[in-house]
Write a structure and sequence with these properties.
Layout lengths: L10 E6 L3 H12 L8 E5 L41 H15 L4 E2 L3 E6 L6 E5 L2 E10 L6 E2 L14 E3 L13 E5 L3 H10 L4 E5 L6 E2 L2 E2 L2 E2 H8 L8 H8 L4 E2 L3 H6 L3 E3 L10 E3 L2 E4 L3 E4 L3 E2 L18 E2 L2 E2 L4 E3 L16 H14 L2
Parallel strand pairs: 1-2, 1-6, 2-3, 6-22, 8-18, 9-10, 9-18, 10-15, 11-14
Antiparallel strand pairs: 4-5, 5-6, 7-19, 12-13, 16-17, 20-21
Helix pairs in contact: 1-7
Length: 358
């Protein structure tokens, strides 16, 4: 799509981010009577063909089956019990945007948002200029900026030293031993894949809550949905503690060990290719992959709307700044807030706030 920056001017809503959260927000605004491209518009810093789902490793699959991987208004195609690949998710989101008439403006990065002088509007500063709007929804999700230990960049190994966001397929990793730092969902999926071609060590910083992929023959998300646990609202103090602990779905450590993966404790530092391990002997891998997660990348939001560690202070999507909202964050309201299957619920609530805002 050809960009048309002037089309951003004087909209009631600008949605920043055209992934699953942004599209869910667009659909919810349409349900409240707002018109895409006329009353609201989506922008995204990426190019249309380089969205987040297209840049992940080739074998990545969702841990939610297709029936629990759809946005409101359009089912995920194919067998509802299969686990979609990343490229299928990207295709689904493109088709969703087309079917709903949502035409994001690609290649426009949000840089700052401030109250407009002398009015109740906001000014969104972007890479293509400043635009006044009544409301801004930050829907870029929690996986914007790779998180690394401060000493990771200076680590020297014979092979390669990369963050998991740079990993694409096993042949990218030179032959030899591989240390994967971080035993969350990403670290475990990469350890499983690389175990068939490499000698893999998986370092875990802490014990993480685990759920099986299937329970009594059914997808675990079928149980979470049926019992209401996926969408049940959680009090703010509890949400804060839960958001700091990733729930691992499938790939239990004992199963990875049967595939030959060695599991060790926390990596505490690195020096000249040697990685000390908490309560264990150091390891000297040929290559290292940092599966250490991401930061939300909200440095463009006002400082008084964020905590010291960069997380947004919000109440079910509404921030301290009138007209500024966030969407798609883990545990924003419930366990499912960051999942495709549940983000539409939070989007609908924000759409009501926007509709009723004078």
């Amino acid at each position: 799509m050809t960009r048309n920056p002037p089309s951003l001017s004087h909209k009631r809503v600008i949605i920043v981010g055209a992934g699953q959260a942004g599209l869910a927000m667009g659909y919810s605004l349409m349900q409240k009577g707002l018109r895409p491209q006329e009353d609201f518009v989506l922008i995204d810093a990426a190019a249309r063909d380089h969205v987040a789902w297209t840049s992940r490793w080739h074998s990545l699959t969702l841990f939610t089956s297709a029936q629990y991987s759809a946005l409101s208004g359009m089912a995920f195609p194919g067998d509802p019990n299969r686990y979609p690949r990343a490229d299928e998710v990207a295709e689904y989101l493109r088709d969703y945007a087309d079917q709903m008439g949502l035409r994001p403006v690609w290649g426009v990065r949000a840089l700052a948002v401030t109250p407009s002088a002398g009015s109740r509007s906001l000014t969104l500063r972007t890479s293509d200029g400043d635009f006044d709007t009544r409301n801004v929804v930050a829907a870029t999700g929690p996986f914007s900026v790779p998180r690394l230990p401060p000493w990771a960049g200076g680590t020297v190994v014979p092979g390669i030293n990369i963050h998991s966001s740079q990993y694409t397929h096993p042949k990218q990793i030179p032959q030899g031993t591989v240390l994967i730092v971080g035993a969350g969902n990403t670290g475990r999926q990469l350890a499983r894949e690389l175990s068939f071609s490499h000698d893999v060590t998986l370092a875990s910083g802490s014990t993480q809550p685990e759920l099986p992929q299937r329970l009594f023959g059914r997808d675990v998300f079928a149980w979470l949905t049926r019992t209401g646990l996926l969408s049940f609202p959680v009090p703010p103090p509890v949400r804060g503690s839960l958001a700091r602990r990733e729930v691992v779905i499938g790939n239990p450590l004992p199963e990875l060990r049967t595939l030959g993966v060695s599991t060790v404790g926390r990596v505490t530092s690195s020096s000249e290719g040697v990685f000390p391990i908490e309560d264990s002997s150091p390891v000297t891998p040929d290559s290292v992959i940092w599966a250490t997660g991401f930061e939300p990348g909200f440095d463009w939001l006002p400082g008084d709307t964020r905590t010291r560690d960069g997380h947004v202070i919000q109440r079910r999507g509404a921030t301290r700044m009138a007209g500024l909202f966030v969407l798609g964050l883990p545990w924003m309201r419930s366990r499912g807030s960051a999942l495709i299957t549940c983000v539409s619920s939070d989007a609908s609530h924000i759409a009501r706030l926007i509709r009723d805002r004078p």
